[in-house]
Amino acid sequence: MTVCECYEKIGADYDEVIGRLMSEQLILKYLKRFCASGHVEDLKSYIAEQHYEDAFRTAHIIKGICLNLALTRLYDCSFALCEALRTNPQIKEIPDLLEALLVEVQRVTSCVSEIDEQ
C-alpha cells in the first residue's frame, strides 16, 4: 500500500499533506512517529486518573499533529475531545469521545503498518 492509498482508506487529505510536506518519505516518517509516540496512551491514563488539565494538553497535541498530517477524521475526533476537556472535563461524554478517538487511532495505525517502504 502507498501513502496515498492509506490516506484514501482512512479518509484523510493526501493532497493537503503532500502539499505541506512535499515528500511521501516525510509523511511516512511523521505518521510512524505519531503512531509510536505514546500520546494516546498518555491521554487514556490522564482521563482515567481524572488529570483533566494534562488530558487537555495531550488532546491538544494530538489535534495539532492530526491537523499537520491532514488526518481529517482523527482530527475531528481529537478536536471534539479537546473542546470537551477545555470547556467541561466532567461531562459524561468524555468516555464516548475518547472511545471514538481510539477507534480512529486504531484505523490509522493499522493502515500505516500496511504501507510499503519505498
Characterise this structure:
This protein is mostly helical. It contains seven helices and no strands. Helix 4 packs antiparallel against helix 5 and helix 5 packs antiparallel against helix 6. The model has no long low-confidence stretch (mean pLDDT 95).
Distance from N terminus to C terminus (CA atoms, Å) equals 10 Å
Q: Tell me the total number of β-strands.
A: 0
Instruction: Please state the structural category.
Output: mainly alpha
By DSSP (H or I, 4+ residues per run), the number of helices equals 7
Element-by-element helix/strand order: HHHHHHH
Q: β content, as a range? A: under 5%
User: What share of the residues lie within helices?
Assistant: over 70%
The average pLDDT value, as a whole number, equals: 95
Biggest sheet overview: none
Q: What is the overall shape?
A: elongated
Low-confidence stretches: none
Features:
single chain; 118 residues; mainly alpha; 7 helices; 0% strand
What is the compact description of this entry?
The protein is mainly alpha-helical and 118 residues long. Helix content is 77%, strand content 0%.
Sequence-ordered SSE layout with sheet pairings:
Layout: H1 3-10, H2 14-21, H3 24-35, H4 39-48, H5 52-68, H6 72-87, H7 94-113
Helix pairs in contact: 1-7, 3-7, 4-5, 5-6, 6-7
